[in-house]
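Dear support,

Our group has been running a series of protein-ligand predictions, and this particular one with nicotinamide-adenine-dinucleotide is the one our PI (initials K.S.) wants archived with full inputs and outputs. We had some confusion internally about which version of the output was final, so please treat the block below as the authoritative record. The input we submitted was:
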Amino acid sequence: MLSYHPLSAHIVVLPLPSEQILVQVPPRPYAVEIGAGHLARLGALLDGAGVGRRRVLVSSPTVWRIHGDAAAAALPDIPVILVPDGERHKHLQSVSRIYDALVKQQIDRGAALVGLGGGVIGDVTGFAAATYLRGIDIVHVPTTLLAQVDSAIGGKVGVNHPLGKNLIGAFHQPRLVVIDPLLVASLPRREFRAGLYEVVKYGMTSSRSLFDRVGRSVKELFKRDPDVLQPVIAESCAIKADVVARDERESGPRRVLNFGHTAGHGLEAITKYKRFRHGEAVGYGMLVAAEVGVGRGQLAPSDRDALATLIRRLGPLPSIADLGIAEMLEAMRRDKKVVDGRLHYVLATSVGEHKVVDDVGEQELAEALARVGFR
Ligand SMILES: NC(=O)c1ccc[n+]([C@@H]2O[C@H](COP(=O)([O-])OP(=O)(O)OC[C@H]3O[C@@H](n4cnc5c(N)ncnc54)[C@H](O)[C@@H]3O)[C@@H](O)[C@H]2O)c1
Ligand SMILES: [Zn+2]
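Confirmed final output from the archive:
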């Protein structure tokens, strides 16, 4: 950020101020600290939040190779446990490896785990923290955009079962979340883009200003310019924090987070979680939801077009041309958003506004899928 400093008559570069968002959940609210360079300040941030002195860091070999030196400098002498990440390692064996290390090091109830990694490390480490000695503290230091704007906040932790995703889990809110926007500079472009679709979700359902901000700064975002990235991350986190505070266990308001996820999860399932990154599937899912909205006369075609244009500009997305409407409907029926036989469906009603309905029928879903390009 460039600014003119009148006293010295020099152009000086001012760092963006760091930001703090409070997640107001009982019994203990927690802070999300956001600032470029926060990884280097991790020790001070943990001390400031009163996190116990006995700390154990959990990360993945990939993340540790890139950010390990900086993390070790910020937390000298901290024991480190590395477990592989990526969706195929999100299982109980990874949790078990963390337990083994904790038991061997005689880690007690007062200790805290620090999870440095993407959503997989966060979910696995969080689940270990939720269950080891019936629960110890967890601090999330997310390193993917998806984890920074979504999975690190809200307390959902867990692993996959061979027969289904996220079937084993718990609610375990973190003690603290520390977000350093500089960490995503090393993220592959496709992973970064996948996170951006979740940002678009927040914009489309809850904030026109966020939606417009992303649209204005696609180029700078992909360059990982921290001055552009930080406010986008901060607003996304504020929206998620607000939703979580109103509905910690996902019975009502938290459903808004599922915008684009009904068709998105269906798409991931029928392609066996191989073709799409989660965010990419949500990109298509949002297009389907927008078509449902337009079909019902609840969303203006111009707002659907604005969403489609933004999603296309962030693209490319893997193709859906070979995927059928019938198999999508089948997969969507099986998704867990069906409660008592009714599908809870989040509709955007304009850019930045939404509502939840439970009367979306198969016929209108089929028509929406066809308009998005499913066979
Ligand atoms: N708990 C929740 O509320 C919640 C919400 C959304 C998603 N999730 C979960 O999050 C998981 C997906 O998370 P993800 O997309 O972060 O995947 P991920 O953790 O597998 O990370 C993706 C890839 O990026 C690499 N990586 C991570 N940080 C990096 C960095 N800074 N530089 C370079 N490479 C880096 C990882 O090694 C990995 O290969 C899914 O399992 C999903 O279920 C959980
Ligand atoms: Zn998602």
